[in-house]
Design a protein that fits this description.
alpha/beta, five-stranded parallel beta sheet
Length: 418
């Protein structure tokens, strides 16, 4: 998937001379490296948006040899940004990982990579002259002359990309998220302090270290546009880029020529944006104010004649299929939402529409080992708020709103479908 640059700021910030950032990081104390990352305002690019400097500081504060895990599982449906970076700019990732390793006092790097990315990572590690070993050592020693590294292939399941599930896989176990606390920064791989970072987050570090106090360094982000657009691909944009600019100007609009009716800007856990909200910037606070989330910027676009009840069903089905089953409230929530929506789509009764948000509200108070239990909240609330007529039409006629009324009459009334 070729990278097309939407705004020529240099991929993830001005590109430093290879090795220059690491040389500068070695001149700085680990605390000064963390301070520089904090000054940039960098937040995690894997979806959660946790402040990168805070994660570095928490892990380094343990005073013990640590692990650094590079999460390249890229399990978000439709995402291509991490694989693109690994294929085309692996030196940025390796240098960023080395900088983070210095900041946290890591003795070993673990590259937790999808099957598509693993071979590229191994080749990049060989070129970087890092000691590549078969598997991560269960015990770390302070003061090793060289960092060691290993590559672990991630399972294809969505939940396997969650930080603590990744740690379980690396240790040889099933991809089941851990209960927290303790958090990985306190007790991660084999009980050692562990920092887990997304590929794009680490690739932003070289520009940040070289640029000093420039808050714009590393601010650019990568967005993935799907095949429904005329120009799908991975694009570099700045946070000031709007959804409309990304979808209609950069992505060329829908391949069908249909006007944009709705956008899901951050994957299955983000909220739908109505056409009138496309002026929202690709920035976390702006997205939250609009009732959505940036996530890892996997963008799905829907035409104005598409049924949003069916679009929501696609997202909820994915979340239900992705549930690992470890937390009963999450398992019940995701499966029940799909069943309710299927009943609504099949012809009602209309009273079930309100039950969707009731189920989400109940699950919100339960908590779980990972964030999947909270993921249906934004897509459900936004779809019901912005497109109520799509759900009402399904409940009344049992078909999508864009289909003609004559076809709907053949399906039957709510009384015959209940």
């Amino acid at each position: 998937m070729p990278l097309a640059t939407a705004e020529r700021a240099g991929l993830l910030g001005p590109e430093p001379v290879p090795g220059a950032a690491m040389a500068r990081a070695l001149e700085l104390s680990p605390e000064a490296v963390v301070a520089r990352v904090r000054g940039s305002g960098l937040r995690g690019r894997g979806g959660a948006g946790f402040p990168a400097a805070t994660k570095l500081e928490l892990t380094a504060g343990r005073g013990l040899p640590a692990y650094l895990v590079v999460n390249a599982a890229e399990d978000e449906p439709g995402s291509g940004k991490d694989l693109h970076l690994i294929e085309h700019q692996p030196e940025r990732l390796i240098e960023g990982a080395l900088i983070a390793a210095r900041a946290v006092g890591a003795a070993h790097l673990v590259f937790y990579a999808s099957s598509a990315a693993a071979a590229h990572v191994e080749a990049a590690l060989a070129l970087a002259d890092l000691d590549l070993i078969d598997s991560p050592p269960p015990q770390l020693e302070r003061g090793n002359a060289r960092l060691t590294a290993s590559v672990v292939v991630a399972p294809p399941e969505y939940v396997a990309g969650e930080d603590t599930a990744a740690l379980e896989v690396i240790e040889g176990n099933d991809a089941i998220p851990r209960s927290r606390p303790p958090f990985p920064s306190e007790s991660g791989l084999w009980g050692a302090p562990t920092a887990v970072f997304n590929v794009e987050t680490l690739a932003a570090l070289p520009a940040i270290i070289v640029s000093g106090d420039d808050r714009e360094a590393g601010a650019s982000l990568l967005a993935t546009l799907g095949a429904e657009l005329r120009a799908p691909g991975v694009y570099e944009v700045t946070p000031s880029t709007t959804v409309r600019e990304l979808v209609e100007e950069i992505g060329g609009g829908l391949a069908t020529g249909e006007p944009t009716g709705a956008v899901l800007p951050g994957g299955p856990s983000s909220g739908f944006l109505f056409a009138e909200q496309l002026g929202t910037a690709l920035e976390r606070d702006a997205m939250a104010a609009a009732g959505s989330a940036l996530g890892c910027a996997v963008v799905r676009v829907y035409g104005e004649d598409q049924c949003m009840a069916c679009a929501l069903r696609e997202q909820l089905s994915f979340l239900a299929d992705s549930c690992c089953g470890a937390c009963p409230p999450c398992r019940m929530e995701t499966s029940m939402l799909v069943r309710l929506l299927d009943q609504i789509r099949g012809g009602g009764p209309a009273a079930l529409i309100g039950k969707l948000e009731e189920v989400v509200g109940f699950a919100a108070g339960q908590g779980g080992r990972c964030s999947l239990i909270s993921m249906p909240a934004l897509p459900v609330s936004s779809a019901l708020r912005l497109f109520p007529e799509h759900f009402e039409h399904h409940a009344e006629f049992g078909v999508c709103k864009e289909r003609n009324h004559e076809e709907a009459q053949h399906v039957g009334s709510p009384s015959t479908q209940a």
